[in-house]
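INFO batch 0412 | record 1 of 1 | parsing
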Amino acid sequence: MSSSNNKTSPTTKQPTLRVIPLGGLHEIGKNTCVFEYGDDLMLVDAGLAFPSDGMHGVNVVLPDTSYLRENQKRIRGMIVTHGHEDHIGGIPHHLKNFNIPVIYGPRLAMSMLQGKMEEAAVTDRTVIQTVSPRDVVKVGQHFQVEFIRNTHSIADSFSLAITTPVGVVIFTGDFKFDHTPVDGEYFDIQRMAHYGEQGVLCLFSDSTNAEVPGFTPPERSVFPNLDRHFSNSEGRVIVTTFASSVHRVSMILELAMKHGRKVGLLGRSMLNVIAKARELGYIRCPDELFVPIKQIRDLPDRETLLLMTGSQGEPLAALSRISRGEHPQVQVKPTDTIIFSASPIPGNTISVVNTIDRLMMMGAKVVYGKGEGIHVSGHGCQEDHKLMLALTRPKFFVPVHGEHRMLVCHSRTAQSMGIPADNMLIIDNGDVVELTPTTIHKGDPVKAGIELLDASRNGIVDNRVLKERQQLAEDGVITLLTVISTDGVMAAPPRVNLRGVVTTADARRLSIWAEREIGWVLDNRWNQLARNTGGTAPEVDWVGVQREIEVGLQRRLRRELQVEPLIICLVQPAPAGTPAYKGRADAEPDSRPAPRSGRRESSGREPVIRNHAPAPQRVQASGAATATTPVATMTPASAPAVQVAVAKREEPEMPANRVRRRRSTAAS
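INFO prediction complete | emitting tokens
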């Protein structure tokens, strides 16, 4: 047996299976994986993740699917392991960009996906096929997939045995070994051991809890602790958990019936998941257990249970709105017992803690934390991983679904189970795992990254937009309005407006700096930005004018004030012959030399003066300064339309024939 960890593939004539994760590596969420052999391409899951604090206005984070769009004609189908958002949440968006011939998955996941696809209007872009335990499906000419029942925090979850021309690959999906499952659906350990006996080429295994020793406790272990809190509560019980944790929700509803409490549901996802789970038989309870939220307020508190979303501190979730006093139907009472039956996802801890603090300040009793025993993970710990390795006995091993330290820890566990270090890879999104019957190595990586969606889940927030939003949040924005005639004359004083900019410069100084930048561009760059086409007026590159002014003012602010706000210049064109604005007489002259090339030729008209007389000014309090001067000559009605604002761009490279200009550091 030979193996290689080289990043480039060794020359070989053996058939090669390529496995390419596009998401889920070195992170939690957006799990997406590609299997390739020959002309066949098969997808396994397509999830989403949630934005970090710096992703302003972003609602959803998806993997970059450039590779899939480029190879969409080779896509033969998709396999879904279970119905969590980090495994199916990206599918409706991807279907807007490329077709998937067929999607195979468990009943609950496919039911939830169907609703998402209808909402996104993409139901015609694929065919959905539900599967049962031990069902085998063929995808393309080279992949045969068996669905093996496992146990997880959501019902109807599967691991995969993928038979390929190079051997059998086990893809665990999310799993733990729960020997007392709430729904009675046991982990099919026998089938997993069968493949171990036959021979497993490679194991791709969930690493989320790889740092935690022992076994993950069973889901049923939280029942007695929840029961105790229900019994001790004299007022309303309010419970928040993941809507997709069907087993947890089922136990909470069982406890509501036991303690004689009617249930009110809040949160769209909670309503949808419970409806789907009841329809498919994963939750069994009578209709009369549920009461509309508007009517449940009329019941005694001792007979009320509110089950809702918001366990992760999401700003728009039901419990978050209640904690801010913004919910129209539910207000916190001092007698309430509020139970967080979930643990924060990495990155959400601050939001969760802030929500708990607000609820406590309102007088409620809040039950949270590991010490209360009201939440267990759906992911296996180290002993679960050892059991999976012992059952499958793989030749090669690749840890997936976790941050880097988790992958490293999982690989150490695999080594302790007898797998040589040379027979495993730690990979990142976009890395290509190439498998032959006797080797494992990394191939040339493919493009990977993220796609950011705004709240509409339609518009992509590209890097430029995200950078501008971050700049707005950190340094604020300056808008500059100037009137320039088509023959290159500043026809009115510029109007400068600041929002969110912290600076020691007063409004007068900022206005003078703006005049200087405009004047410099008109004196030294106009001939390159305007050309005479033989018509009545020259053809002016107004976008270029705006950009030149923005870049110049940006450089001056960076040099003089050490701030980098977003600068937006708006140019109002005026007809040729419009009288020039004479400027401020008391301003210091701009001593910068003009460029050696592109120097403005004499046009026989009076140059723009940048030694200006004082003009009215206004400084706005609370960190937002506004410099306003009266517009001497505004554009007549016959003038061209206002140009569209151009956001700040990166500074362009200096042309070869242009000498870097020195700017005056003198400030008025």
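INFO post-check: Residues 1-12, 597-668 have pLDDT under 50 and may be disordered.
INFO record closed
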